[in-house]
Amino acid sequence: MTLITPTGESQENGESLVELKGVTRIYGQGEAEVRALAGIDLRICQGEFVAIMGPSGSGKSTCMNLIGCLDTPTSGNYRFRGLDVGTLSRDQRALLRRHYLGFVFQGYNLLPRTTALENLELPLIYRGVRPRERHEAAKAALQVVGMSDRESHTPSELSGGQQQRLAIARAIVTNPNLVLADEPTGNLDSARSVEIMELLTRLNRDRGITIVMVTHEPDMAAYARRVVHFRDGVIASDEAKA
Amino acid sequence: MNLLTTFLLAIREVRRHLMRSVLTTLGIVIGVGAVITMITLGRGATEKVTSQISGLGRNLLILMPERASRSGGPPASTAPFKIEDVQAIVEEIADVAVVAPLATRPLLAVYGNENRTTTVTGIDNNFFEVRDWRLSMGRTFSETELRAGKLVCVIGATTRKELFRYQDPIGATLRLGKLACEVIGVLEAKGATFGNDQDEIVLVPLRAFQRRIAGNRDINLVFVGAKSGESTAKVQRDITSLMHERRHISRGEPDDFAVRDMTEVTNTVGAATGILTAFLSAIAAVSLVVGGIGIMNIMLVSVTERTREIGIRMSIGAMEREVLRQFLVEAVTLSLLGGLIGVAGGLGCSALVCFALDLPFILDLSTVFLAFFFSGSVGVVFGYFPARKAARLDPIEALRYE
Ligand SMILES: Nc1ncnc2c1ncn2[C@@H]1O[C@H](COP(=O)(O)OP(=O)(O)O)[C@@H](O)[C@H]1O
Ligand SMILES: [Mg+2]
Questions:
Q1: How far apart are CA B374 and CA B27, in angstroms?
Q2: pTM
Q3: pLDDT score, position B193
Q4: Which CATH architecture is the domain A16-240 placed in?
Q5: Rounded to whole angstroms, how far apart are CA atoms A16 and B248?
Q6: A59 lines ligand 1 (CB under 6 A)
Q7: Is A67 in contact with A18 (CB distance < 8 Å)?
Q8: ∠ CA B118-B123-B128, rounded to 5°
Q9: Ligand 2 centre and the CA of A37: distance in Å?
């Protein structure tokens, strides 16, 4: 309960999951140099639900990729669960993602021509879960997102909202610490968006999964308990709701 | 992720793109099929030829009056042997089990309205032993028939069929030229050797042949059977030097006779067909390499096409080596699939050809395993490059790939 308090105060008591310090990310060199992140400090604790907002090109996705250990900072320091990600190898970061992270993308990114159940089993396969348990876990996750009746459908046989729910199920099937969602409702109408947001809220509340979500829409950001605004590669504001 | 799971997922992937997978493996299928067919047919041909040669008799040497031509053409015939030469071989050469001289001449054989030109051959009973020929009916020559020179004959299966049809030939009298001759036996069918029907033959006692048909005492050919287990090469050397002596050939002069060792001929022919088989198989193996390039091509396309999938797998936590292994296993699965179809097709094809050409069908498991192993290796070699390309993709870019 103490986690839901304004920035900088009781959060320091909480367990720090993500900790960015003076992180920059620079693409290209010389003339073509782009400072996507120009030095940000961000701390996210276990159990938070954070929305990241900001104009296009302000560095939101770059930041998500860094937090998701898909990329490493050009300078500065990023600690995930206290581990300095910048010093880890490609494979070590892959293992971090495998065990602690889940991703939800704007474009769903499900495997085509692959059934819903098979899509859900994929992260479990990499975790080395046995077939039977894998099957059970996949079915359970499908139930969580309310799609038990669609287990043998392929993505092309599902609506956008259903695909995104399936993608969320895939992100949580491994019981991760942190789910990163980059504009999860970007391709959906408002009714579907609300469904997705309610699903994320529920996962955050009932299962304690930390959620960091990028969104353009204030309505969606309203579901989060903390909103971070980006502008030109820096954090312009960071507000927690009472 | 363990290897079995990877393999099962690869099979799933192959089934998902069944048509493309089958087309991809076509090169391997043809390559393996061709190699298997070549080797199996080669084995069959070798087996048939060597069994035909050994059908001439085991441990057999043939002494012939001929001189090797200097221009490389067929050998010229020389003065025939005498019965004394044959006696000398029997008496003076060690390790000789049996000696069978013969004289021969083509003649018209007539029975009723039927007539056939056959090879009339004068022999003694040793001939049956040395050539390992058996009778299907009747008997061989008696001592008196051999000595007195009475004209009786044992006929080959073809001659019997052509002259007698379904009548019983034993006791019948046929005409050889102007001479009457009673049939006392029929040979078992031997089949053709090198297009020459061995069953088109009339055997008569050597004495009678010389006196009444040939009108001379010539011996055209001597079969010598070496004792089993003894070196035919030594017997061959001994006969050669004996003949040098008897036919007055001095050192440096060309031989006017030849001693053929049939074991040697068997080996030579076997080696020749072996070389031919190896050569054809090597050509067939080239198509295996071409098949491998086909697999590499499709795997590269597949990696590009599945860039986003690779990105997804990486975001989920696939390590570089796992992505590498996945694509490698897929390539190997494809090539093994091709190998499997190729082996089946090759065996089926060679069984058909063997049947059509009347060759023995010899299934060689080691060839099958080797072909299978090679197709797997082709998958590894040609799948590695695309797999490495997949494994080295940047996850962020791969996820953004359209
Ligand atoms: N791979 C890249 N190479 C070069 N520039 C990039 C790359 N990715 C992002 N950028 C640039 O970095 C800036 C921030 O991008 P991004 O983080 O995607 O913004 P947002 O998600 O907030 O819209 C933009 O100017 C973008 O053009
Ligand atoms: Mg973005």
A1: 13
A2: 0.72
A3: 62
A4: 3-Layer(aba) Sandwich (3.40)
A5: 113
A6: yes
A7: yes
A8: 95
A9: 13
